[in-house]
């Protein structure tokens, strides 16, 4: 193989969007991947050890982006994955007619790749109404996990 045959399409630091964790160590209020979706744990019930010797954890959770409820049952000693969830606050600078928003953080960095949220259905209208009323101090919280970013909360400043 010559040097011209090997091409690197992309590279990254190798950081993962999830981390492995034993199911018995996941706590209520924490996060967990269920059916490929990042979820917040609402409740955990643990059954007694059965004939195969494992206690089972029954997780009830909501998808952090859609709010849909999901359930999963995993032996407490088995591994699962936990998403790395990051929440950041941004000031809204502009909202265009296609519901695309321009955001700026405290450092002056801009973000232009997000739209107004679809879930819950009323949030996009509330943000747009506050913006159209001349409230130039409208900020929002962007939640990101497993490569997905979405506005999850907003407020008027001042």
From TrEMBL:
GO terms for cellular component: chloroplast. It is found in: Plastid, Chloroplast. One of its GO terms (biological process) is positive regulation of translational termination. Belongs to the eIF-5A family. eIF-5A seems to be the only eukaryotic protein to have a hypusine residue which is a post-translational modification of a lysine by the addition of a butylamino group. The keyword Plastid applies. Coiled coil: none annotated. GO terms for molecular function: ribosome binding; RNA binding; translation elongation factor activity; translation initiation factor activity. Translation factor that promotes translation elongation and termination, particularly upon ribosome stalling at specific amino acid sequence contexts. Binds between the exit (E) and peptidyl (P) site of the ribosome and promotes rescue of stalled ribosome: specifically required for efficient translation of polyproline-containing peptides as well as other motifs that stall the ribosome. Acts as ribosome quality control (RQC) cofactor by joining the RQC complex to facilitate peptidyl transfer during CAT tailing step. SMART domains: eIF-5a. Keywords: Chloroplast, Hypusine, Initiation factor, Plastid, Protein biosynthesis. It comes from the Eukaryota. It holds the Pfam family IF5A-like_N. This is Eukaryotic translation initiation factor 5A. The keyword Protein biosynthesis applies. The lineage of its organism: Eukaryota, Sar, Stramenopiles, Ochrophyta, Bacillariophyta.
């Amino acid at each position: 193989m010559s040097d011209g045959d090997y091409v690197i399409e992309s590279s990254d630091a190798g950081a993962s969007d999830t981390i492995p964790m034993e199911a018995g160590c996941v706590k209520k209020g924490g996060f967990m991947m269920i059916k490929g979706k990042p979820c917040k744990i609402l409740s955990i019930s643990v059954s007694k050890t059965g004939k195969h010797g494992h206690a089972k954890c029954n997780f009830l959770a909501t998808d952090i982006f859609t709010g849909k409820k999901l359930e999963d049952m995993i032996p407490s000693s088995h591994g699962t994955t936990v998403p790395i969830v990051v929440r950041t606050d941004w000031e809204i600078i502009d909202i265009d007619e296609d519901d695309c928003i321009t955001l700026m953080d405290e450092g002056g960095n801009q973000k232009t790749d997000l739209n107004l949220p679809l879930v819950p259905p009323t949030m996009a209208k509330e943000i747009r109404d506050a913006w159209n009323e001349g409230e130039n101090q409208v900020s929002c919280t962007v939640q990101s996990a497993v490569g997905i970013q979405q506005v999850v909360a907003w407020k008027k400043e001042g």
